[in-house]
Backbone:
C-alpha cells in the first residue's frame, strides 16, 4: 500500500516558522507580501496591518476617510487680532 506522495515541486515558505508550501515563485512572493510583508501604518493613529485594503477600510471606518478628500482638507487657522 503506497501512500500518495507530495508533489516534488512544492516548496516550503522561506520564512521561519511558516508551514505553507507553494507551487511557484509568484505564489510564494504573493504569500510573503501578504502574510510576512511589512506592516502598513495608519497615518492617523497607531493601527497597523499588512493588507492595504484592510488599512483603507480601517481609515474609512475610524477616521471618516474618503479617498483624497481628507488630504486636501486643511483646517483654517484663526488669527485673532
Ligand atoms: Zn509563509
Ligand atoms: Zn487609524
Residues:
Amino acid at each position: 500500500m503506497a501512500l500518495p506522495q507530495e508533489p516534488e515541486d512544492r516548496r516550503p515558505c522561506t520564512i521561519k516558522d511558516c508551514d505553507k508550501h507553494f507551487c511557484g515563485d509568484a505564489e510564494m512572493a504573493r504569500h510573503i507580501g501578504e502574510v510576512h510583508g511589512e506592516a502598513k501604518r495608519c497615518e492617523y493613529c497607531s493601527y497597523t496591518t499588512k493588507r492595504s485594503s484592510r488599512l483603507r477600510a480601517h481609515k474609512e471606518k475610524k477616521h471618516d476617510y474618503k479617498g483624497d478628500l481628507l488630504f486636501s482638507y486643511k483646517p483654517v487657522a484663526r488669527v485673532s487680532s
Notes: The chain has a mean pLDDT of 81.
